[in-house]
Amino acid sequence: MSTGAMPIPRRTVVRARRLLRFAGYFAVRLVQANLAVAWEILTPGSRLAPAVVRVPLRATTDTEVAAVALAVSLTPGTLTLGVHREPTAALWVHGMYAADPVAFRRAVTELEWRLLAALRPAAHPDGPDGGQSEVTRR
């Protein structure tokens, strides 16, 4: 009789790696946003360019949409103002530094892509990896 530990399923390892990767990405983004807001407080009016931007979502479930909205709102300098599910899912996001709405939308989309990669199962057919076991950015 073997007394060794049970092997960890591959999907658990992949999921844990994805969650850790997102946590690291989000921690860096959080520090950067906090530094930008702190700099704005110390030097008022230096880069402030507020705007409200509509960001189309790839998130499909209520949980995914809520997680993306929460992650956006947790980042200093951004706030989710509204979520629309019909006809297509989209967030309305206020950004303190949104002088370039296209770049701002791209940054929120990047956050969503990374979050969905962490939340969705490894072989999710609608996932950011197209059902592959590892996430690869195209």
TrEMBL record:
- Which InterPro entries does the UniProt record give? Cation_antiport_E (IPR002758)
Compartments reported by the entry:
Cell membrane
Q: What GO cellular component entries does it have? A: plasma membrane
* GO molecular function terms attached to this record: monoatomic cation transmembrane transporter activity
Q: How does it sit in the membrane?
A: Multi-pass membrane protein
Q: Does the keyword Membrane apply?
A: yes
What does the UniProt keyword field contain? Cell membrane, Membrane, Transmembrane, Transmembrane helix
Signal sequence segment: none
Main location (coarse class): membrane
Enumerate the Pfam families for this protein: MNHE
Please state which protein family the record places this protein in.
Belongs to the CPA3 antiporters (TC 2.A.63) subunit E family.
PANTHER family, from UniProt?
NA(+)/H(+) ANTIPORTER SUBUNIT E1, NA(+)_H(+) ANTIPORTER SUBUNIT E1
Supply the name of the protein. Answer: Multicomponent Na+:H+ antiporter subunit E
Q: What organism does the UniProt record list as the source?
A: Micromonospora sediminimaris
